[in-house]
Amino acid sequence: MKPFPAGSLRRGRLVAAVILTGWIVPAAATAQIPPRGPQSVPTAAFEAALTTLSTGDFAAALEIAGRDYGSGIRIGNQRWIDSIASSAALGEAHYELGALADAVQAYDEALGIAAANAEWLLAVQFPQQGPQPSARPREAPWGRSARGTRPATFPDTMTIRFGGGDAEQVLKRGGVLASPVNIPVRPHEIMRALVIALYRRGAILGPLGRSGAAIDDINTALAQRPAPPGHWSQAWIDVAIGTAAWSQGRLDQAAAAVERGATLAGKLDHPLTAWALIVAGRIALERADPVSAARLFEEATYAAVDFADTRALEEAFRWAAAAHQAAGTPGVPATLQGGAAWAQGSMPVLRTALLAAAAEVLAAGGDAKGAAARLGEIDPRVLRGGAG
Question: 29 burial class (0-12, 13-18, 19+ CB within 10 angstroms)?
C-alpha cells in the first residue's frame, strides 16, 4: 500500500482519509474503522453481479459491479483486495456485453491490484484444521467424475488483519497509523476472481496478451508464492501461476502448475479446481488432443457445480461442446443434455447456451429437424435480453 505524504505528519496531524466500503473515516492522528465493521470481502454486491450475469441481465450486472468497485476499500489512492473481485466482475459484465476493450482494462486493473497487495494471503487467519472431505454427494446430475477426488469443505469466511502500523516508521516515512481490526474475508473468492481475470484476459487477447505491465507485475508477485509456506492455499497460487503461464503460451509450465493446483494433496477439490481443469483443457486443445480436452472440460463442470461457480460452469460446458465436436464424436454429449435439463429455471443463460450447442452438434451431423427442436426449447425471453 502506498504511504501518505510524510509532510502531513510533520504538520502535526494526519491529513488523510480512509474510504471503507462506503464509510469515510475523517483525518485524525489515528484512523479508525467504524465500530460496526465492514461487510465481508468480497461484498454481497460482487455475488449479486455474478448471479445477475447468470440470469442474462448483463447491463444490470455491469451497474452492480460498477457500484461495488466505486465503494471499494482504499488507503489513500491504493485500492485493497476487495477491488480484485469487483474489477473481475466488471470485466465479466463488459465481456458478456461484447465490450472487450473495457473488459481487458478491468482485468488488467484486477491484476494490478493483486500485484500491489501481493502478500495479503499471509495476513489471512486460516483455521488450524485444514480442509476436510465433504460428506455431501457430488451434485451434478449429468454425469459422474472419474478423477477419484472429493470436494473439500472449510469455513467460507475467515478473517484478515487490517490496519495497524509501526509508529516510528509512520513518522519517518508517512502513512496511516490505524487501529488494527479483523475483517471477514473469503480468500477463495478473491483468488478465484484473480484467476478469472488472468484466464479471460488471455482468452480475449491471445498472443497479444503475452506481454504488458499487468501480466508482468502479477507474474513477479506470484513467483514469490505469497501464501503461507507448506500451506494448502499454495494450491491456489499454483492455479494462478498456471493460468498466467497458459495466457502467455508457456504450455509446459502451465500444465505442470495447474496439475499441482487442481487438488489439495491429490485428494480434495477446492473452489479453484474447475478453473485449473478448464485451463488444462485449453492446453489439451492447443496440443491437438480434443478427446482429453473434452474429458477435462466435463470434469470441470462437476467441480464448478460443487462450488457454485456459475462463471466456470458456463465456460466448462461451452468448451466441452467445442472439444466434443473437434474430436468428431457422434451424437449430443450426455453432459449437454443433462446440463440443459438441470439449468432449466435457475440458469436461463446456461440452458440457452447448452441448447444452442446441442443444436449445433445435431446440425453438423445432418439432423436439421433435431437441431430445430432444440432451438425451439429456448425461452424467447432470454433472447430478448442482453444474452440474446
Answer: exposed
